[in-house]
Every structure is written in C-alpha cells, then in structure tokens.
Amino acid sequence: MRHPLKPLFFIALLLFLPSGFALWAADLPAPSVSSAAPLPVISQSDLQALQQRLDGLKQQISAANNYNQLEGPQDRVQAFILDVDRLSAALLPQQAQLAVQLGVLGAAPGTEVAAEQADIVAQRAALAEQKSKVDGTLKNLATLKQSAADLITQIAGIRRTLLESELTLSTRSVLSPHFWSPLVNPTLDDRQRLSFFVDQVRTTGATVWAPGQRFFTCVLVLLALLVWTSGRSLADRWLTWVCIHRVPEGRLRRSALAFASAMATIVTTAIALQLLFYACTRHAPLPPMLETFSEEFEKVVYACVLITGLSRALLSTQHPSWRLPAIADPVALALQPYPRILACTLLVLVTLVQVSNATGMSSQIVIAGRGVISLVMLVIFTTLLLRVGRVRKALLAANDLSAAHSTFAGVIYTVASVSMFVSAIALLAGYVSLARFISYELVWAYIVLSGFYLLIQLVKDACEHLFSPRHASGKALKQLLGMGDRRLEQIAILLSGVSRAGLLLMAVIALFVGGIGTTLGQLATNIMAILGGAGLRKLNIVPGHLLNALLALMIGIWLIRALRRWLDNEFLPKTDMDPGMCASLSTLFSNIGYAFVILLTLSSLGVQWTNLAWIVSALSVGIGFGLQEIVKNFVSGLILLTERPVKVGDLISISGVEGDIRRINVRATEIQLSDRSIVIVPNSQLISQNLRNVTLGGSAQGVASLELVFPLDIDPEAVKDLLLDTYRENETILDKPAPFVRFSKLSAEGITLTVTGYVSSPRIVGVTKSDLLFEILRRLGVAGIALATPPAAS
Predict the structure, then answer these.
(1) Which residues does residue 710 pair with via DSSP β-bridges, in sequence order?
(2) Could you count the other beta carbons within 10 Å of the beta carbon of residue 250?
(3) In 168-213, which ranges are continuous DSSP H helix?
(4) Strand partners, 745
(5) 97, 161, 224, 662: most buried by Cβ count inside 10 Å?
(6) Those residues with Cβ within 8 angstroms of residue 411's Cβ, 6 or more apart along the chain or in another chain
(7) Residue 489: its pLDDT value, please?
C-alpha cells in the first residue's frame, strides 16, 4: 500500500534540496526552439502591403477638395495605426522570448576559450537571426506608425485650412437664380459622375440580387427592418420592464428608464445597419466609391438616431413622470414632432450631399446642396422656435411662471434664435458654408448636451443610490467598511461631483472637437488626445493611472484611520505613557501618514517632482506673502508634538485664557475653559509667548486661599484656631504643607486674616474654597462671631 505522505515528502525534498531538484530536472528533455508554440510571423510582403495601404490613404487625402471628404480617410488612418499597434504588440513577446533565450546561451566565447558544442553554436546563430528579423520588423512597424501619426497631424491642418476657407467663401446669394442652376442644369462631368455612381449601385444590387442569393438577401433585409421597427419596440418594452421591476423606485429608476429608451433606439439601429451592410457585402466587398459613401452614410444615420433617441428619452411625452429635465407638458408636446422631422430631413439631404462628395462632383453642386440643407434646417428651427415661443407665452398668461421662465431654457432659446438669425443673414449674403456650419453646430450641440445630460443624471442618481444607507448596497458598505450614514453621504456627494465635473469637461471638449458625422470612436480619440495632451504629458499624468491613484488614496486613508484606531484603543492605553503623550503620538502618526499617502498618490499618477518647479515657485511666493502665518503655525504644531512643552490634558494660562488643552492640531490648539467652551489658539502663540503650565510635570498643587475681614473687637487667636480647624478637617486640604493663617491687614474697617491651604490639584481649588466658605460661615455663626460690615457709601 502506498503511503499518503510519500508524495509530500518527495516534493519537500525537491524544494529544499537544490541538488535533488537539479537531478530531477536533468531527466527532463531539453527545450528546443522548434518545440515551442508557433509565434506570429510578419513577412516582408505584409510590410509592403501596409506601406501600399498607407500610400493609398495619402493619395485619397491629397485628392480631397473639401472639408467633409477628409473624414473618411482620417478614420482609415486611425484604423491603420490600430492595426500596426496590434502587430507590434504581437511581436513584442516574441522579441522578449528571443532575448531571454540568447541571454541564457550567453555571448560567443573568445578564441582563447575552448570551442563550444556545435548544436549550441547553431542554436545561438538561429536565435540571433530570428531576433534580428523581429527587431527589423518592429522598427519598420514603428516607422509606419510614425508616418501615419504625422499624416493625422497633416489631416488636422488640412481640415482646419479647408474649414476656414469654406467658412469665409462668398458665393451668390440663395435668392439668385444662378445659385440653383448647378442643380437644375448640372454639367456633363457631374452627370457622368452621378451615372457612374448609379452604375456601381446597380452592379452591387445585381450581385446581391443574383439567382440563388435573393432569398438570403430578402431574409437579411426583412430582418433588418424588423429589428429597426418591431425590435426597437420590443427592446424598449423589455428594458422598461427591467427598470421598473429590477431598479428600486426613485430617481435612479427614472434616469435608468430614460437611458434605456435611448439605448434601445441606438442599439437596434446599429444591428439593423450591420445586417444591411452584411447583406450587401457578404460575397464581394463594395467598390471604393460605395465604401466611402457607406461609411459616411453610417455616420449620418447614427447622428439622426441620436437626435430621435435622445429626444424621445428626454421629452418622454407618453410618461411625463419619467421626464428628467424640468420641461412643462405643453412645451414637451410642442417639441415632440420636430426631432423626427429634423432627423428624416437630415438623413435625406445629407445623404444626397454625401453622394456628391463620394463621386467628386463640382464644388458648385456641393455648395448648392449645402444651401438646400441650410434653408430647410432654417425653416425647421424657425418654426420650432416660434411654436415654443407661443407655448411659453400661453404658460406665462396662465401664471405658470415655473414652466414659462427657466434660466437655462431661456439661454437655449436665445442662442438658437441668434444662430438662426445669423444663418439667415449668411444665406442672404452668400456665405452658404457658414450657414450650413452654424446649423450643423446647433444640431451637434444638442446631441452632445442631451447625451451628457442623460449620463450626468444617471451617474448622479447611481451614486446616491449606491451609497444610500436605506438600500442594500449602502448597508453592505456600512458593514464592510464600518462607515456611518454621514460618511456614506459624503462619499456619494464627492463621487457624484467628481463624475459630473469629468463629464462636463468631456462635454465641453466634445462641443469643439466633433460635429455631425463624428463617430463615438473619433470623439473618444479626440477627447483623450486633449486630456492626454502636452500639458499633462509634461507632468507625466496618464489617464490610465487615475484609477491607481484613486485606489492608493482610498486604501491609504483607510489604513491610516484603522492604524490610528488601533493605536488609540489597543496599543497606547497599555503603555506607561500618560494620556497627553498618547494623544500627541497619535496625532503625529496621522499627520505623517497623510503626508505619505499624498506622496504615494502623486507617485501613482506618475507625477515627476522635477516637473513641479512652477508649483514650488508659486508656493514660495505665497509663503512669502500670505501663507507665512500658516507655515509658522504648522511648524509650531510640529514643535509642540515633538518637544511637548504642553500636552493634551495640561492646565495652562496664556493671554488671560486659562483652561485645559483638549487637542493639539497641526495649525491650532483647542483649549477648554471652565464653562466648557472652546478657545482656539494658534500654535505659534504657544511657542512665542509667555505661557503658564499649571500641571507641567504632573506634581502641581492647588492653593485654596481665603481672605476674611473681622471687626476690631474679636479675639484673633480664637478666630485663628477656628479657621485652622476648619482647614485641617477638610478632606481635600493636604497635611503637608500645613495650612496657616496670616494677619494680613489692620485698618479702621477691621482685621483682615488670610487663611491658606494646599490641595492635590489646581482643578479642585474652586470646589474646595466653596466648601470651606460654607463651613467657616457655619462655625462663625455657632461661635457668635460676625464678619465686618462694609462701610456705607457716602
């Protein structure tokens, strides 16, 4: 029978005896390069194909003659860079593996050393040759990526130049018949280009509708239509059911319903587009002209879907209680048909303009198409503004001031009205491209602001729900982290505020770096390019490090608080140190810990201290003018915590203030007076001014002294004995030093006697003197001795 401990003993022997491990490993077959898993290989032909692809993109960019024709090539260059990065990432592990293998074999021995075995020499040569090829391939890929990155920069410059020239280009007014003549009577070249485009569409349609393919084409097209219509309705109903039955009742459910409504429209449209694209390209790719058109058409469709989806989610005319913005029902009903009208109009007109761009028609056709778009959008927006204005006036007449007057709504209404007025003037003056640009920017601003408003509301409500002590998540966090309700609310407000600030920043950036036709990928790339721009790169702050910094900050603060609780409640109470010393050590530990956490957080962000010279300079100037008092108090606080001339619990007197030290902070010290009020004294005063520490050293005694005036006819010795007996019989008066009575003064008003005794602590002087006075007055009354009567005022 096999003993169950033998395998464990054998494993322990291998682990703790290097010689035994060497003997065991010697029996294993030696690894070889050929037995390794196959690694990715990039041939010279692949590099040539990448170079040809980049050259083709350069030709497309050089052939572009307007701003819109550069959007497609820019996307393809971005995709090219991603492909190069993917290939480089696949080769990096191979390069590292070959470097390690060569390091194991070592360098070739010199001539004075005995020759190596032939197989080792051959293996080293093979590995060196493979590494040389990989290094060369990575170098070529890096060159291609740099060329593509330079091309992106050039595209941005070309687009900026073309945009400026188009916006300042003056043509005939839209009132001139010559402006519309290119559309009524196009040139022969434009007709041929349109005929060529139609022929390519027919050829692609014939391929898709070929015998044997019609059934699958019909199925895919019908499936796309069903997804776009019935699928959207079903997805909307299902997501609504999920939000109602799975999301707790409250503001989070309302924002989740709006977000789900928008996502149902966007996702189903994306699926329908992919099905249509697959139906057209499942056998053969589209020609270059149709491929360019399909890319631009997809962007226009997404823009139109965002208009309708966001409007449907925010207006919520069917369920007014789900509406997120404060829009009155009459205003929402007045706005309801216009998003769909605008989306359908843009889909038709912009698609026609994209046909002219894809085919490379004359600039006169393109300008005329822009004029049509600008005029139609001007009519739609003007009608919308007039109708909303009438509704707002009706609400104002009905004394519904909350619905009629809103600052933000008034700003939007004013901006839209001014934009349409400028657009109309531009059309009449012949600046058609400027009018089209204004209309597009107005639509893009609506998409960005509506989308980010929806996200901000969702994030805000999610944070409040997640950290709410009334819900399961908040209760779980309370139990896990040991936090109170107030702390959870603070975390929720902090996270909500930071998230909303970040989203607002991205919304502002998106307003200026995007436009109609900008995809989400382009928008994210542009935003990250700005957020990770030169300013942040100088500080070496990478957006990906923000999460690490946040985790370091949260974990560090939690550890410091946990350790401080352990020091205050477990470790320090069991030492021989007095409470004041324990409080000073605990405060000093927390201050040093927080400083270390801040340094760790900055290090996690990747901040290099050499790049923070401007911060140090600014701090030095601030310290020289306005922060010197703060710095002085901070240094004084450190001195108080280390030298400890005063400590927590001491009874001190400074500048007429006498009380017990309650807490020593970094900037100021809290002193508790006898009436339980708190006086906050800057630390610098405790260092620089004369201070009386009554309890320093722990052996201070209190003095209970009373001054009494008696008539001239009393027996001084009898009164002296009475006073001394009263002091000696009091429990709080110390025997050593012994109490004594002093003849203080003899005057016409009487004899003044001062009786003095000592108590163990200055804090009980007041109570002791009160008890002594009561007892002395009682004994004087029994003995028939009266105190001197003050002379009457003349």
Answers:
(1) 751
(2) 15
(3) 177-184, 188-208
(4) 752
(5) 224
(6) none
(7) 81
Q: Averaged over 78-99, what is the pLDDT?
A: 83
Q: Which residue has the higher pLDDT, 577 or 646?
A: 646
Tell which of 486, 503, 526 closes a domain.
Answer: 526
Q: Which residue has the tokens 């960005």?
A: 448
The share of the chain scoring above pLDDT 90, in percent, equals 5
Are 121 and 184 within one domain?
no
CB 693 within 8 A of CB 645: yes
pLDDT of the residue at 22 = 38
Sheet with 750-759, strands from edge to edge, namely: 702-710, 750-759, 740-747
- Domain range for 569 is 539-626
pLDDT at 18: 40
> pLDDT (tens digit, 9 = 90+) per residue, 262-285?
888 889 988 998 898 888 888 778
Cβ–Cβ under 8 Å, residues 278 and 220: yes
CA distance 650 to 660: 5
How many structural domains does the chain have?
5
Q: Is 588's pLDDT higher than 90?
A: no
- Cis amide prior to 737 (ω within 30 degrees): yes
**String of DSSP letters for 363-422:** HHHHHHHHHHHHHHHHHHHHHHHHHHHHHHHHHHHTT-HHHH--HHHHHHHHHHHHHHHH
Alpha helices in 17-43 (DSSP H): 18-26
Kindly give, in sequence order, each residue whose CB lies less than 8 Å from that of residue 507, ignoring residues fewer than 6 positions away: 448, 449, 452
Please check whether residue 209 is in contact with residue 217, taking contact to mean a CB–CB distance below 8 angstroms: yes
Flag whether pLDDT at 10 surpasses 70: no
Kindly report, residue by residue over 210-228, the tens digit of the pLDDT: 887 888 889 888 999 999 8
C-alpha radius of gyration, the chain, whole number: 43
The CATH number that applies at residue 668 is: 2.30.30.60
- Burial category of 263 from C-beta neighbours within 10 Å (exposed 0-12, middle 13-18, buried 19 and up): middle
Same domain, 619 and 713: no
Compute the mean pLDDT over every residue in the chain, rounded to the nearest whole number. 78
Measured CA to CA, the distance from residue 728 to residue 740 in angstroms comes to 10
pLDDT, average across residues 17-38: 40
In whole angstroms, give the CA distance from residue 432 to residue 372. 9
Distance CA 445, CA 570 (A): 59
Q: Do 190 and 229 reside in the same domain of the chain?
A: yes
Q: Are residues 643 and 585 in the same domain?
A: no
What is d(CA 399, CA 93) in angstroms, rounded to the nearest whole number?
72
Angle (CA) 508-512-517 rounded to 5° is: 115
Cβ contact 655:622 at 8 Å: no
**Residues 6 or more apart in contact with residue 312 via CB below 8 angstroms:** 261, 262, 265, 339
The C-alpha angle 361, 363, 57, rounded to 5 degrees, equals 65
Task: Tell whether 75 and 130 lie within a shared domain.
Answer: yes
- Indicate the SS3 state at residue 794: coil
Contact 755, 724 (CB under 8 A): yes
Helix or strand or coil: residue 108? coil
> Can you tell me the mean pLDDT for 250-270?
88
Lowest mean pLDDT among 48-57, 398-407, 584-593: 398-407
What is the identity of the amino acid at 8?
L
Rounded (5°) CA angle 98-100-102: 70
Q: Give domain status of residue 531, yes or no.
A: no
Based on the fold, state whether residues 663 and 679 are members of the same structural domain. yes
- Report the distance separating Cα 397 and Cα 394, nearest Å: 5
Of 167, 198, 233, which one is at a domain's C-terminal end?
Answer: 167
Residues 229, 122 share a domain: no
682 and 710 in a single domain? The answer is no
132 in a structural domain: yes
What is the CA 362 to chain-centroid distance, rounded?
A: 47
Report which residue type is found at 622: G
The Cα 749–Cα 707 span in angstroms is 14
Which ranges constitute the DSSP H helices of 673-715? Answer: 683-688
Residue 26 domain-assigned (yes or no): no
pTM above 0.70, yes or no: no
